[in-house]
Amino acid sequence: MSTSEDHSKREKTTELIRGADAIRHALKHAPSAPGVYRMIDSHGDVLYVGKAKNIRRRVTSYTRQTGHVTRILRMISLTMQMEFVTTHTEADALLLEANLIKRLKPPFNVLLRDDKSFPYIVIRNDHPWAQITRHRGARGKDGLYFGPFVSAAAVHRTLNILQRIFLLRSCSDSTLDNRSRPCLLYQIKRCSAPCVGRISKEDYERNVADARAFLEGRDTGIQKRLAADMHNAADELDFETAAILRDRLKALAHVQGHQGTSTGNFDDADVIAAVMKGGKTCIQVFFYRAGQNRGNRAYFPRHEPDAVLDEVLTAFLAQFYDNKPPPALILLNLEPDTMPLLAEALSISAGKKVRLHVPLRGKRRDLVAEAVNNAHLALDRRLAETTSEAKLLADLAEAFNMDSPPELIEVYDNSHIQGSNALGALIAAGPDGFEKSRYRRFNIKSETLTPGDDYAMMREVMARRFTRLMKEDPDRTRGLWPDLMLIDGGKGQLSSVLSVAQDFGVDDVTIVAISKGVDRHAGREQFHMPGRPPFILRAGHPALYYLQRLRDEAHRFAIAGHRARRSRALSQSPLDEIPGIGPRRKRALLSHFGSAKDVESAALRDLEAVEGVSSTLAKTIYDFFHGGH
Does 148 sit behind a cis peptide bond, omega within 30 degrees of 0 on the bond before it? Predict the structure, then answer.
C-alpha cells in the first residue's frame, strides 16, 4: 500500500471514530420512544432523517464502526450532532419522517423528486348553478372532487367530454352573473346557458347529478334516458333539441368505448410497481378511479447506488402520499417489510382504512404486471438517456480541456430592454439533466450602473454568486460549487467574470463565454476561454447541440424573469407607495380622478372630496406628491 493510500485510510478511520463519538454523545439525550432522529453535519445541514420505534435503540446501532454498508459509514463519519423528536406511535413517526425528508432533502435519504400535486375536477356546491372546473392544490372550494388525473391535459380532455355530454357551465361566477346573452360555448353545444335561463333549474340539477354519477362510475341509465328524450323530441318535431340530444349520446358512447382497461372488482385504486437496475429505480404509478384508468406516471427517486428496493419503495410510498389522499386500495408488485406500518400510517393520514395488497392471481395481478412492464421500459429509457448525458459531458470536458466531466454546470445570461428591469439569470445542469432547484435570478441592484451596461451587470451577478458560494460552502464539501461556468457573451463578458473570480481567489473553475456565430447562425458559435484564442466546434460535434440547449434554457429563463418583472412594474402605481392607501382607497381615487397622474395634480380640497378619504389622508396624499413631510 502506498503512503498516500495509507494516509487516506487513516484519515477515514479518524473521521469515522469522530462521527461515532458525536453520536455516542447525542445518545445521552436520546429517548426510548417512537419518533424521528436527524443526523447533522458540521455545517448544520441535515444528512439523514430516520424514524424508529425506539429512538435510543436505533441510534445505538450507529455507534458501532463495523457491520455497515459504505453509505452508512460515510454518513456516520460526517455526523457532528443529532436531534430527536418523539411521536405517539411508530406510524406517526413514519408520517413525520416523510414530511421532513421532502422539506429538508437530506442527501443520504431516498428522495422523491418531481412530486407536484395532481389536478382534479371539481363540481362546486357553493352556487345555485353548479360550476364544473379544474383544480390543483389545497381544497378550499366547497364541492365534489374527482381525480387525481395524471396531467392537466387529461383534465382538459375530460372536461371537454363532460361539457359535451352534460352541458354544465365552466365560467366564473362574475361572468355568469353579468351575461345578457349566451356565450360561444352555448353556440357550439358545450353549455346549457343557465346564465340567461335557457335551461330550467330542475333540468340543470339533473345534469349535475348525472355528471357526478358518471365521474363516480355509477350507471344511472343516462344513455337510455337521453335516447328516450331524443325520440320524444323527434316525435314532437323538435328536431333542434333532438339533434342536441343525439350529439350528447354520441359523445357518451365515444367515452364508454374508450374507458381503458377494466379493473375487475374495485372502483378506486393505485397500482404501483417498483423495479431496480443499474443502481437506479423506477416506480410506475397507475391511477384507477371510478373503474377507469386515469393515466400513469413514472418516478425516479434519488438514492445511493447500494440502496435496496424494499427501502426505496417504503420511502416512496410515505413521501408520495404526504400531499395527496390515498385511495382505499393500493396494489403493489412486492411486499415491503414495513407494509403493515405503511397501511396504518396511510389510514391515519387519509382518515379512512387504506389497504396495501400484492395480488397473486386474477385481474389485479394482470394490472400490476402491466405496471411492472411499463416500469422496466421507463427505466431502460432513463438509463439510456443517462448514458448519453454522461457521454455528452465527457465530450464537453474534452472540448474545454477539463480534467474530468463536469458534475455541475452553471449557465449565466442577462436580460433587459435598454437597461430597464434588468436581471441576471442562472440555470444549472448535471448528469441527470437540468437541475431546476438550483435555478436563480438576480435583480440588478446597483444604482451607479449605466443602463444597458452588460459588463457591469455581469460583474454584479458574479460578485453576488461568488459571495454566496463562499458563505454557504467555503471549504467546497457540500457540492454547491460548479465545475464549469458558461457565460452568454464574448470577450468582454469573459473579462468581467474573470476579474471578479480573481478578486475572490477563484481559479479552479472552468469559465467559458459563448458568443453568437457569424451572422448569428446557430452552430457557428464562438467559444472564449482564458489563455486560448476564440474557437468554434466542428459542425456535428456531439457537445455543440448540448451547449446550444444549455444556452437556450438560460435565455428562456432570463426572458421569463424579465417579462414578469416588467409586467409587475407596469401594474404598479405611485399610489402604492403612500402610507394609508390600500386597494379600496386606491380604487376610489382612480375612479374619482381617472388616473394616478390626475391624483398627483389634484388640489387638496379635491382630494378631500373623494369618498373614504379623510382630510388627514388627503393632506398625506398631497404632501407625498408636492414634497411635504
Answer: yes
Report strand pairing: 132-135 vs 510-515. unpaired
**What pLDDT shows up at residue 484?**
95
Task: Note the pLDDT of residue 261.
Answer: 47
Q: Are 192 and 214 in contact (CB under 8 A)?
A: no
- The mean pLDDT value for 441-449 works out to 79
Separation CA 592–CA 102 (nearest Å): 50
Name the strand (E) or helix (H) holding 204: helix 201-215
The C-alpha cell of 393 is what? 459531458
- At 263 the pLDDT is 54
Residue ranges with strand state E in 143-205? 143-146
| Cα 365 to Cα 263: distance, rounded to the nearest angstrom | 11
Count of CB atoms within 10 A of residue 69's CB? 12
Please, which contacts does 378-385 make with residues 24 or more away whose CB atoms are closer than 8 Å?
378/282, 378/284, 378/298, 379/275, 379/277, 379/280, 379/281, 379/282, 379/300, 380/277, 382/280, 382/282, 382/300, 383/277, 383/278, 383/280, 385/433
| CA distance linking residue 153 with residue 159, whole number of Å | 10
Task: Give the H or E element holding residue 256.
Answer: helix 239-256
What DSSP element (H or E) covers 298? strand 292-299
pLDDT for 52 equals 93
Give per-residue pLDDT as tens, 204-262.
998 888 888 877 766 656 767 777 777 887 777 777 777 777 776 776 665 554 444 45
Strands (E), 54-206: 81-86, 120-124, 132-135, 143-146
Nearest in space to 476 (alpha carbons), one of 554, 429, 529, 407: 407
HSE-CB for 539 with a 13 A CA cutoff: 4
Strands 132-135 and 120-124: what pairing? Answer: antiparallel
